[in-house]
Amino acid sequence: MKIEMADNGISFSKECVTTVYCKHFEIGRQWGDFLVEENSFMEIKAVINLEKVNLAQAINYLEACELTADLLINLGVKSLIFKLLNNKKFN
Fold first, then answer.
1. 6: helix, strand or coil
2. Domain 2-90 class, CATH top level
3. How far apart are CA 34 and CA 2, in angstroms?
4. Can you tell me the distance from the alpha carbon of 10 to that of 2, in angstroms, rounded to the nearest whole number?
5. Sign of the alpha-carbon torsion through 34, 71, 36, 91
6. Is the pLDDT of residue 68 over 90?
7. Is the pLDDT of residue 57 over 80?
8. Which residues are 74's β-sheet partners?
9. What's the pTM value of the predicted model, to 2 decimals?
């Protein structure tokens, strides 16, 4: 992922830390696999199935970190599975 993003001119931070907010007050920090273009998470999983809990966690990250999108990628199966989640606040 790192090589592909760099080759395509996409700015990113690996294993990033993002500030978590509640009503615009900083309340903590959240770690993600990649912070892309300073406004989106990319999370890599290696599980048999993406469960509702994985999706709920990603949505919570989006809202708490005030990010626009989360690309959830599952590499734990024969073919790549991904979900693009958008923060409704920015739609």
1. helix
2. alpha beta
3. 9
4. 9
5. negative
6. yes
7. yes
8. 45, 81
9. 0.76
